[in-house]
Amino acid sequence: MTIGSLRDLMGEACRAASVPHDKSAYVVEHYLAGELQGRRAHGVAKFCFEAQFFPQREGSPQIVREHGALAVIDAHREIGPLSAAYAVEVAVGKAADFGAGIVGMINTQRYGILSQWSEQIADHGYLGIVMNTSRAEATIHGGRSPVLGVNPLSFAIPTLNEPLVADMSTTLAPMGILWEARRTGRPLPHGCFVDECGNPTDDPDAATSAVVFGEHRGFALSLLVQILTGSLFAFPMSADVDSTWSTGYTFLALDPSFGGQVAGFPERNTKLIDAMSSAVTREGTPLRLPGQVSRQRADHTLATGTVELDDAVYRRLQARAAGDFASD
């Protein structure tokens, strides 16, 4: 279908869910960006899932605790892209005043891709880092019990051109892949999920945990993300995360000028990226940089003007536009 038709249908779903008129386009464009990048678990399918929570928003996000560069936000169950935009605004403001913005947020609906928020921070000239936890849905290599959240991480680096952006899960596959596989009955990607006995499974109904990437190194990174989205702000962690509302989010904005690097941050980053861009693999192909494939997919999709939407996702979107937020 055309991108314009998809955008209109998502807008109708927002209206049916009583999203404020002046906020609908922002919400739509966030999830549409994930779809255009080919990250379908974070695109329209995620929009259809999250739309059931849109009417549950209680108010606007609010800072409930702050000290210097740190702030904690109660989002009052705001729609995910809207609460994230507010958290970015707070983090950027703190970075301007103190050289760093360290912002935790809780009691919010979820959003899709993380890269939009880290990139917005980088657009202000700051190093942007965004992450969040989830329910205990991930286990370590060789494990059987879920002990960590999926714990995705994104960072964006300012350059003289567009920021270099990385957006990754600390598991081999995001939970959205499992949710969608359960709806469609399709098999899971091999080796990314395990059953209750810790055995790898392709069966979405048997899967109980996503697997953290990189064995013990990935485990250590995921653990760090867990701390930065949990105990740093006194947010719940692991099994104590029992719902969307107890999930912790973190937004970091770091200004190098406050560390003595008065100028040249984008220039130095650009020089490094140029050096990496000139490197080649053993096959002689250019080195793949973080975020490169996502940008290429989005550019290609925008050039064609059409999106190949899964039939099941399209039917769910039609139902949401008609005011049905329960059917799968």
Explained architecture:
It is a single chain. With about 325 residues, the chain is an alpha+beta fold. It folds into three domains: about 90 residues, Hypothetical Oxidoreductase Yiak, Chain: A, domain 1 (Orthogonal Bundle), CATH 1.10.1530.10; about 170 residues, Ribosomal Protein S8, Chain: A, domain 1; about 40 residues, Hypothetical oxidoreductase yiak, domain 3 (Wheat Germ Agglutinin (Isolectin 2), domain 1, 2-Layer Sandwich), CATH 3.30.60.50. About 40% of the residues lie in helices and about 15% in strands. The chain contains ten helices and ten strands. Helix 1 crosses helix 2 and helix 4 packs parallel to helix 5. The longest helix has 19 residues. It is globular, with a radius of gyration of 20 Å.
Please specify the SSE layout and strand pairing.
Layout: H1 3-16, H2 21-36, H3 44-50, E1 62-67, E2 70-74, H4 80-98, E3 100-106, H5 115-123, E4 127-132, E5 138-139, E6 153-157, E7 164-168, H6 175-184, E8 193-194, E9 209-211, H7 215-228, E10 249-254, H8 265-277, H9 292-304, H10 311-321
Parallel strand pairs: 2-3, 5-9
Antiparallel strand pairs: 1-2, 3-10, 4-6, 4-10, 6-7, 8-9
Helix pairs in contact: 1-2, 1-10, 3-10, 4-5
Please provide a brief summary of the model:
Helix content is 38%, strand content 14%.
